[in-house]
């Protein structure tokens, strides 16, 4: 027990024992209690003891205003159920009152949720963890100056902003049944964050997430929206998630990933309309985990709470790489899981309105969009300086220059796309999505490994844990080279100089 | 056979309609089906099934200007979405509904018209391409394209947020409606039966069209300021220690087994601590219950925290569980609450629902909101809740998940019967026979075919048109004729279309009255106002979960509207002045008694002249009659004794006849006047050794009498029976040891946050003693692992009730007041009684029976069964 096996990840888990006692109000479907139910399951499954457990700090106003407007946060801080009447104007303005009610401890609740995600991001930045889990986070609808869809403070945006300090490109994936509009909007015009959301679209909250919404300005093509219809089952979900995310990983080449695991996409959700099982949902975690990138796993929606806690417990076990029994262990909330008291759930017999034809059409359109991306924008493969933990070097001025260069770069990349594209597509057709995924997983392990080992050198705490570090460091230089080859390989013989346009 | 079965199953599933299905509804035999989405299926008291459905409108149901605009929209969607044309049209709809007037304007707008013609061109280009791809079936290419264009219009629907209720028996089959995705070709809908699409939302009351699409906004007010990548020499100034506190780490030297063992130990300590704690021992009268309470997650979390705090040293962690102040006791809300608090909570829940703030204010002010919320979620695991839920489940039975409706086989009234035998059946009411005479052998109005198994009358009767079977089916499903070629098609559709629109208008007139109250939410304590009715509807749906008919601001659930009578000044005055004409008391008793208004008027005219203005003012002033408190009245109503009859007065308690036998005698009183309760042994073992409790600090502290612990320990029976000398019940029913021994003199009602470590000062076992006790407890076999789940030992008594449901015995379900613990003797004597005797006995416990001696004697002796009063 003293050392975690090498295949296992260093997992940090954020939880505050108060979180379950925040109460949105009578009849409100959002129940923070589900996070506590998950926590108790984790304890009794014996998963608790396999992770680092942290109580997050309460995010400060300063931290929150990194994204949110000052007045909005000030408002959240001062509003209480007993002074609501004095704030009716602001409540309307900040969309607080209906979906997002004022409840006791509202601000604290936001602080804990955001605190967990920010701490997770810092943890990943310091390379003190490979996977960070915060089931209290993932509140993806919150806007800069507006609450929305049960979300007040967008912990995801705050987490991404923190990651951006050390990561040139961050990928955000959203498997909540609702569109991740808050995160998409926050990063709509940047190419450093790609948002990919899989959601029900059409006559459904929040109404955004059309296939044609692809980002704007510099961020054009950096928003990926997968509009889906009622009844998505495990098979259909995988059939679209895997190929699209494989392609995204390949073209965007993020150095850190955030996965919002909204559990309202599960079958039988009180507000959802998909038909996923816990296993199918968990496959997304499994998929991302395989890329070995710094990985943040967040909660989100989920309104049939027994299934939410089942799902997040299972996903924690996936993150840990531990198998757990289907029989649920006894715990304080055992009776919630009747009548079967099992971990896994079965899909319902609801009709799947997502025909293969429809999904194929969506997929090919998204592929087309992804082909518009300059291959691995701003990618710089160079050894990390000894004293820095950072992966890539760039600065704001550089970014501005980047912008100017973009126009020149774009045609180039389109050219690449034309040359490369055919290849790639025939590839994926031969091997099928599975094979495609495997291939890419391979090529993505490398940058991460390099980063990990390099970073480890400076962080004392990590050292003892990785015994084979020497071995790996020697490997690293090879991989760095290999990676460089990969980078240029995209350009094929056409140009051999490495990515001139980048700096 | 198997084949038959599978086809049967298929039929069955095809005719089974579930919530969420899109279906055809037949509301009139001559008009096309209506397309609806099932939102709810409800069983009515009469046994019928009603479907609450969401309405989709066909193009033919829209006002003309909107139809034209919708046409243009469709053209634009059919074409590349990034073109300026599409963008322009998209802008028009986005978020702002386009009303009928605007639509009419837009149709005339030359700019849009230009857009329209461009779109038209593009569409035909697109179709050209499609035509080339599709295998032509020999017909003229352009004709095919036109035909497709024509039929496409039948496949477009307009979503409305209107909800209506229809009898489920009017369902005529399933269809599918999906939001059109630009990537899909419209042809894919045409090629598949019963498939429809929609792009726009139609509001039948506002007569508007709207593309219901959210928008990602662009601008500095919406996007985040971007964090730049740190340079080499830059630091983010983040100190990870400030952001988190480590609670547990997997990097330690303990094995899984060691941790498990430690968990068992801490549960054992918890069990023991409960045995020592008087308030716990009252609540959990058996070791089983104490063990179960000690196995709740709070104890485990505390154990893990303890391990972490003691650097994963089992030894020091263990010692910390038994500090000098006594074994550590962790209690969660579930255990913290007394039975009376639990009862209060349930009562409050009944009254207020889950409004925990109100519950706290009015019922449990000494609890914090967090206490209540935590308790609530735990309370839900108890059988009390489960029972409530069962009651609710019965209530909810009227809500169905699916309904089976066999295929409708009755012939349509529009069917033209050539068979004269059927004339009688069909009747002449619909005039089909006249039409038959007129139509003769007219070809099908749609396809011009002249042979068909069945013919149906179609269109206004004076035109005497008929449709063949296929065209009739098409008409019913898609609301149009297959080809646009029919000489009648347009007029006819118009003529038929008129009807629904007219009814709509009628309905609207009715709602005009409601509308003047603006679009204000009628929900209690909400009262939000909205510009548009549609917004109000959405508010209802989102904020209160209520679906409304969009033509009425009232929630659909409310069937009867409340009204109140507003009395005018004259009316009020006349009640005073014309009292003898109105006879209000008589009228109140006899609602049918007619008051002559003219008489009142005459009387009033005379009377009003006789009173001065101050009198009038005083008449109008509302004077509250003092009738005393409602409670008093209610009491009086139920208690005729107050009328004064001597014989009705209650007999004073001391005058009451004494019963021969006291079935449940009160326990003796202690020196301080409190009742002394006896404890029951856990098992029907021979009378266990008793502990004498020295009342050291004037409170109840349970200490083993034979303090020579190590020696006496092996004798410690599985059922530790301790008889407290005095257990003064605190008034609130809440009592902690620390409240008494002065460690916590300020007994503030809101209990301290968990974990609650109650010290037990007077009993201080040495670590060795402690270990021995644990061992003894284990040897006794009781609290330790019974159910192994995932290899983790867990103490929980699982039983299965009749329904096979797993149950865990909880102190929550322990009886609230008395229970009787029979001895073997009792049990034996019971067996000698007949069922009737037993029943009689149960009703009249004082009665003598053949075995009664045995019975009554036992109740009074300490060795016999014991009566325990809980809380
Ligand atoms: Zn959601
Ligand atoms: Zn025909
Ligand atoms: Zn309201």
From TrEMBL, chain A:
The keyword DNA-binding does not apply. One of its GO terms (biological process) is heterochromatin formation. It is an enzyme of class 3 (hydrolase). Residues 406-421, 436-445, 452-495 have a biased composition (Basic and acidic residues). The lineage of its organism: Eukaryota, Metazoa, Ecdysozoa, Arthropoda, Hexapoda. GO terms for molecular function: DNA-binding transcription factor binding; histone deacetylase activity, hydrolytic mechanism; metal ion binding. GO terms for cellular component: cytoplasm; NuRD complex. The active site is at 141 (proton acceptor). A divalent metal cation binds at residues 176, 178, 264. This is Histone deacetylase. It is found in: Nucleus. Belongs to the histone deacetylase family. HD Type 1 subfamily. Keywords: Chromatin regulator, Hydrolase, Metal-binding, Nucleus, Repressor, Transcription, Transcription regulation. Its EC number is 3.5.1.98. It comes from Chironomus riparius. InterPro entries: HDAC_I/II, HDACs, His_deacetylse_dom, His_deacetylse_dom_sf, Ureohydrolase_dom_sf. Residues 377-503 are annotated as: Disordered. Gene3D superfamilies: Histone deacetylase domain (3.40.800.20). Substrate binds at residues 99, 149, 303. The keyword Hydrolase applies.
UniProtKB/TrEMBL annotation, chain B:
Residues 849-861 have a biased composition (Low complexity). Residues 120-151, 849-871 are annotated as: Disordered. GO terms for biological process: negative regulation of transcription by RNA polymerase II. One of its GO terms (molecular function) is sequence-specific DNA binding. It comes from the Eukaryota. Residues 15-213 form the BAH domain. The keyword Nucleus applies. Residues 332-384 form the SANT domain. It is found in: Nucleus. Residues 519-544 form the C2H2-type domain. Residues 214-325 form the ELM2 domain. InterPro entries: BAH_dom, BAH_sf, ELM2_dom, Homeodomain-like_sf, MIER/MTA, MTA1_R1, SANT/Myb, SANT_dom. Keywords: Acetylation, DNA-binding, Isopeptide bond, Metal-binding, Nucleus, Phosphoprotein, Ubl conjugation, Zinc, Zinc-finger. CDD domains: BAH_MTA, SANT_MTA3_like. The keyword Acetylation applies. It holds the Pfam family Myb_DNA-binding. One of its GO terms (cellular component) is NuRD complex. Belongs to the metastasis-associated protein family. This is Metastasis-associated protein MTA3.
